[in-house]
Amino acid sequence: MTLLTRGSPKLAAIAAVLLPSSAAAFGGRCHSLHVSASVRTLSVLRVRGGSSSSSTDHPYLPISLPDTFEERQEDVHVALLSVLHASRVTRHLQPLGSSDIQTLSKQDASPVTVGDFASQAVALHTIHNTFANSDMYIAEEGSDALRNDEDLLKKVWGAVNHVHKGDLNSKQDLLKAIDFGQGIGEEYQPSLSKRRVWALDPIDGTKGFLRGRELGGQYCIALALIEDGEVQVSCLGCPNLPLPSTESTKVIPYGAWSENEVKDDTSNSSNGLFSSSRGCLFVAVRGGGCYEIPLHILEQCLLGHTAAENSIADLPWKRLHVTANDGTAKLKHEATFCLGVERGFSDPKGTVLEIARVIHGPDALIVDDDGITDIKNSLRLDGQGKYGLLARGDAEYFLRLPKDGYVDWVWDVAAGFLCLNEAGGKMSDVNGNAIDFSDIGKGRKAKLPDHVKGIFGSNGGTFHDELVRAYAEVNGSDD
Predict the structure, then answer these.
(1) DSSP class of residue 63?
(2) Confidence class of residue 240 from pLDDT cuts 50, 70 and 90?
(3) What is the DSSP letter of 354?
(4) For residue 71, which of 230, 288, 225 has the smallest C-alpha distance?
């Protein structure tokens, strides 16, 4: 087996990988294969502790990757492990039903929970163990609230230790890991060749997280690697998102649990946190496509792997493609809108409803039992998991039109951007212009350009053109 390294003594060695092309659909478990020089070469990444004071290795994921990811294996392995750890700790913390889970409020009134802090700590710690000071980290949370609230810090520390058996050895390690995302305590030594920035939203869709699992409360861990202004790798971990074509994809609210699922969850005594019917992970590489895999399969590999480095799992990666945009699968007036639950943020003026009326016609809207007007053909959920639904063909339109003057943070957009684009879809601003990430990381810049007044996502082609045209018509100009 030929080993490749990036030249750092802290980085794990990686073997070249070739994945059988027949892995096109979900199924099966975390199967072990043995490397044979006469058959094919597969990859294993061991992510080693970044501190010389620690003798504990992180668990590694002995898994095969799609062959289209060959040029980005190290980055993808680390991203997968990071998001898997964060998905597990947040799945452990998300309440079954809506509850009074402790929250803080940021300046923009958005809530922060124990889950946000725990997720950011394990995710950035995992990445930093491999890409210590050569990469930049930009993430949503800082540790100030924890440093000023010992009770809250104990809760975060307890949650991390309950699920994550890595080498976060102290509360100080936890606080330091969180602050990597703010550039605090980091001896950043940028690569001479590329500006590499990891952008993380530890819980994108915190209100969905608080809504609880049983009601289908959706959120995701959103991670993207941006190199010199181009999104190169992205990963969306969606712990409560139903797998394709399962029962919960057909109910309102989207993703709500059935009685049987609630019963199975409360009686489950296994080590695994994810069921076989929900928990999805989307991963994309620029030029390499977008793939989906159930979280429970990755979790099986994490919890059940053998220590032998010649044992590797051949996983059922499913390559995703958006709904065909040539009219053969759906016509534009039949397209499904995939929108946020919190309309006061994503559509404060009701513009999206008017756009739907332009595209779908006079019968586009309905009034529900509570007297609320909505789009007849729509799904509503929190977080960037919406981009995953577009990528796998469950919906065709996404719109995010925040209040005037608001500019999106990179962690709210970048991961979903690449997943959608690599599945054949398109993301743009409201005028159809490409999203510009070129300044991200310069002086720790973490927001999109000021002229981006909203985000449109679609399955591309004439569908996207229709979205831009409808927005201009509703606004009365080309803006």
Answers:
(1) B
(2) very high
(3) H
(4) 288
Least confident range of 263-277, 325-339, 363-377, 463-477: 263-277
Query: Catalytic: 206?
Result: yes
Coarse DSSP helix, strand, coil percentages of the chain, rounded to the nearest 5 percent: 30, 20, 50
> What six digits make up the tokens of 377?
């053909």
Q: Which of 68, 75, 90, 116 is catalytic?
A: 116
Which strands, in side-by-side order, build the sheet including 455-458? 378-380, 337-339, 397-400, 455-458, 426-428
E-assigned strand segments in 320-392: 337-339, 365-367, 373-375, 378-380
Coil, helix or strand at residue 198 = strand
Strand residue runs (E) in 151-207: 196-204
List the structure tokens of 214.
């049983």
Tell me which residue of 220, 293, 211, 210 sits closest to 256, measured CA to CA.
211
- In the block, which residue shows the tokens 């990963």? 235
List C-alpha distances in Å: 329 to 6, 296, 335, 393.
Answer: 44, 31, 10, 10
Residue listed under structure tokens 């695994």: 272
> Strand, coil or helix: what is 367?
strand
**Which pair of tokens denotes residue 112?**
């922060």
Alpha-carbon distance of 478 to 474, in angstroms, equals 10
Q: Which pTM value belongs to this model?
A: 0.86
Contact 93, 159 (CB under 8 A): yes
Range 327-330 contact pairs with CB under 8 angstroms and sequence separation of 24 or more: 327/462, 329/393, 330/396
Taking the C-alpha atoms of residue 449 and residue 436, their distance in angstroms, rounded to an integer, is 7
Q: Return the pLDDT at 50.
A: 34
* Mean pLDDT of the residues in the chain: 83
pLDDT of residue 270: 55
Q: Note the pLDDT of residue 100.
A: 59
Cβ(332)–Cβ(466) below 8 Å = yes
User: Of residues 206, 249, 323, 336, which has the active-site annotation?
Assistant: 206
Band of residue 105 on the pLDDT scale cut at 50, 70, 90: low
Q: Which residue has the tokens 């998001």?
A: 83
Question: Nearest-CA neighbor of 290 among 430, 384, 204?
Answer: 384
Per-residue pLDDT band at 340 (split at 50, 70, 90): very high
